[in-house]
Amino acid sequence: MWYFAWILGVLLACSFGIINALWLETTQRLDEEPAGDD
Questions:
Q1: Pfam families from the entry (predicted)?
Q2: CB under 8 A, 24+ apart: contacts of 26-35
Q3: What string of DSSP letters covers 24-36?
């Protein structure tokens, strides 16, 4: 059953990377919005 834990670890790492990338894009957009709004 080691493969089950390995697959869960890989999926967790991939989802963590995707969530971080989306969060980074969102925070960059929020930082740029007020400057373009003015």
A1: YbgT_YccB
A2: none
A3: HHHHHHHHHHHHH
Place of tokens 């930082």: 31
User: How far is residue 32's CA from residue 38's CA, in Å, rounded to a whole number?
Assistant: 11
Paired tokens of 32: 């740029």
pLDDT in tens, 12-30: 999 999 999 999 999 988 7
Torsion of CA 10, 12, 16, 18, to 10 degrees: 70
What is the pTM (predicted TM-score) of this model?
Answer: 0.65
